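Service request form, structural biology core

Requester: graduate student, group of Dr. S.
Request type: structure prediction, single chain
Budget code: on file
Notes: please return the result as C-alpha cells.

Sequence provided:
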Amino acid sequence: MQGALRRAVLRTHTYFVGKLGDGVWVHNADCYDDIAGAIVRGHAFEKHHLFKGEFQGLDLRTVQQFKDFVSGIMRNAGGGNKKSLSGGRTAYWSNDTGVVVIHDPRARDVGTFFRPNSGKSYYDNLR
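Core staff response, request fulfilled:
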C-alpha cells in the first residue's frame, strides 16, 4: 500500500482508520510491551516494588526488567489466566509468580501489577 504509515496507538488495542464507510479496523498485533511500559511507569513500580517490596525473590530491580516481566505475564497468559473485566479492563494472572496484572485503558497509568495477599483467589474474584 503506497503511502502507508506504521503507527502504534498506546491506549487503544483496536481502532478505526479512515472515513465512515470507507475505512478499516486496525489492530495492534503485539501491544504488550507498550502497555507494560506504561503500567510500570505508573504507580505500581513505586508502590508495590519500592515501598511494599512485593517482588522479593524474583531478581527484578530495574524498570526495564519489570517492563519485560509484566509484558511476559500478559503475553503468556492463557486459558483461565486471562479474563475481561468490567469497564474494558483485562486481568492477567501468573501461576509461577503469584502476580496479577490489570490493564485499564481508561486509567491514567493504564493499569497496575502486584502480588495480592489472597493469591489466585483475588484474581478469581475480579469482575
